[in-house]
Amino acid sequence: MTVVVLLGAPGAGKGTQAPRIAAHLGVPVLASGDLLRAAVAAGTSLGREADRYMSRGQLVPDDTIVRVFLERLGRPDASAGAVLDGFPRTRVQAEALDVALAGLGRRVDLAIYIDVPIEDLVRRMAGRRICAANGHVYNLVSNPPRVADTCDLDGSELAQRADDEEATVRARMAEQVPPLLEVVEHYRRSGVLRTIDGRRPIADVGRDTIEVLEAETGPDA
Ligand code: AP5
Predict the structure, then answer these.
(1) CA quadruple 142, 148, 151, 154: dihedral sign
(2) Could you write out the DSSP letters of every residue in 112-159?
(3) What are the Cα distances from residue 15, in Å, to 91, 95, 218?
(4) Which of 183, 13, 6 is nearest to 112 (CA)?
(5) Which of 86, 122, 140, 146 sees the fewest Cβ atoms within 10 Å?
(6) 138 and 130 in contact (C-beta within 8 Å)?
(7) C-alpha closest to that of 188 among 7, 2, 30, 1
(8) Are 210 and 24 in contact (CB under 8 A)?
(9) Which residues are catalytic?
């Protein structure tokens, strides 16, 4: 089982890089934001609760997200490991993950922190577009689709995420960066943290990420 945690402020590029890492390792991406958005779209009680926080740029309460995320991590498709995108996001979540993995005789193998200054991120989020069918990520400036408003991979329509409006983005940064830095510190202390400069082009960040992965888990992982 190989567990890789991807850390970064909102918009740092976790969702962009996660599929490459997962393909390299042959494990799924488990993205907390995708789990929550699916619950919102399905109108479940979890979705109704999560929506109240997400629409304001706030974190969903730890006990809710820990329960939902650890249940997802326990499903059979993650038995060989997973790339965790968006979880853990607070020290409480990181400690809950440690306890759950310890129960399986495992630990977080690697935490990759994609570091980008906040000013760059607010600008990036304004240009983000997501495909309706599968959540593929584009950017009008740095990673545009070949055909306007259309996903290159599945042809579905591209849309702006509800929480990418500038005021909500700024609220997300103010609320979420301080606890993120505590999580970064948690993994620094446990010796598994590697930091990548996320200001460079997507392909360069991707190359660095795979290099870190190979150095820590081996080329045949
Ligand atoms: P979530 O969906 O996880 O959002 P996020 O962490 O805010 O991260 P994003 O998806 O916004 O950004 P990203 O880092 O994936 O960047 P991306 O690759 O898309 O969470 C949404 C909400 O759910 C939270 O606000 C919270 O309310 C709740 N939630 C989720 N998890 C939770 C948890 N554990 N606890 C509590 N609440 C939780 O890239 C962004 C843009 O930049 C794209 O347009 C992309 O094309 C572009 N880009 C990417 N890399 C580069 C680059 N190197 N150069 C230029 N452009 C780039």
Answers:
(1) negative
(2) EEEE--HHHHHHHHHTEEEETTT--EEETTTB--SSTTB-TTT-PBEE
(3) 21, 23, 23
(4) 6
(5) 146
(6) yes
(7) 7
(8) yes
(9) 14, 89, 128, 161, 172
Other C-beta atoms lying within 10 Å of the C-beta of residue 134: 11
Ligand 1 atom 55, closest CA: 142
- What is each CA distance from 156 to 122, 151, 152, 185, in whole angstroms? 26, 5, 8, 39
In the 8-state DSSP scheme, what is residue 58? P
Please report the atom of ligand 1 found closest to the CA of residue 32: 31
CA distance 165 to 143: 19
| 9 CA → ligand 1 middle, Å | 7
Q: What is the pLDDT along the chain (221 residues), one digit of tens a residue?
A: 799 999 999 999 999 999 999 999 999 999 999 999 999 999 999 999 999 999 988 999 999 999 999 999 999 999 999 999 999 999 999 999 999 999 988 999 999 999 999 889 988 888 999 999 999 999 999 999 999 999 999 999 999 988 888 888 888 899 999 999 999 999 999 999 999 999 999 999 999 999 999 998 766 54
**Residues 220, 217: Cα–Cα separation, whole Å:** 8
